[in-house]
TrEMBL record:
InterPro entries: Acid_CoA_mut_C, Cobalamin-bd, Cobalamin-bd_sf. Its cofactor is adenosylcob(III)alamin. Residues 10-137 form the B12-binding domain. GO terms for molecular function: cobalamin binding; isomerase activity; metal ion binding. Coiled coil: none annotated. This is Methylmalonyl-CoA mutase. The lineage of its organism: Bacteria, Candidatus Fraseribacteriota. It comes from Fraserbacteria sp. (strain RBG_16_55_9). CDD domains: MM_CoA_mut_B12_BD (cd02071). Keywords: Cobalamin, Cobalt, Isomerase, Metal-binding. PANTHER family: METHYLMALONYL-COA MUTASE, LARGE SUBUNIT, METHYLMALONYL-COA MUTASE, MITOCHONDRIAL-RELATED.
């Protein structure tokens, strides 16, 4: 008799809108695609502070945090989220971003702890594949 198969743990993803940005169509599309791909998705809604994002990620025990920023505040919000994650010893949580982020800022954000940034035109399949690959590491 073989051992019962254990179900693989679902990847848990927290999707958030940080700052004053009020446009959430893109993040909702991505959240739906991740859910359809079998991931467990928690969407925190609009106008989150970095502290709220990290607190929710800690409470929900997520593997990935996806933050959408269209307001131009990415060089303030992402570094703060990355710093809070380090303070909470959540170094294993993958931080990724999306939205309108200039090319010249992407490298600096990656140095600060943002694993990947998806801009306009990124396919949901590309995001799904990135998360699956990174969550297995």
């Amino acid at each position: 008799m073989s051992a019962p198969k254990t179900k693989a743990k679902k990847i848990r993803v927290l999707m958030a809108k940080a700052g004053l940005d009020g446009h959430d169509r893109g993040v909702k599309v991505v959240a739906r695609a991740l859910r359809d791909a079998g991931m467990e998705v928690i969407y925190t809604g609009l106008h989150n502070t970095p502290e709220q994002v990290v607190r929710a990620a800690l409470q929900e025990d997520v593997d990935v945090i996806g933050v959408s920023i269209l307001s131009g505040a990415h060089m303030t919000l992402f570094p703060r989220i990355a710093k809070l994650l380090k303070e909470q010893k959540m170094d294993d949580v993958i931080l990724m971003g999306g939205g309108i982020i200039p090319e010249e800022d992407k490298e600096e954000l990656k140095k600060l702890g943002v694993r990947e940034i998806f801009g306009p035109g990124a396919s949901t399949q590309e995001i799904i594949e990135f998360i699956r690959k990174e969550a297995q590491k």
